[in-house]
Amino acid sequence: MEESRSALVLFSGGQDSTTCLAWALERFQHIETVAFDYRQRHRIELDQRLVVREELRRRFPHWASRLGEDHLVDLAVLGQISETSLTRDVAFAMEQNGLPNTFVPGRNLLFFTFAAAIAWRRSIRHLVGGMCETDYSGYPDCRDNTVKALQVALNLGMDKSFVLHTPLMWLDKAETWAMAHQLGGQALVETIREHTHTCYRSERETRHAWGYGCGECPACSLRKRGYEAWTKGAA
Question: Is 232 part of any domain?
Answer without folding.
Answer: no
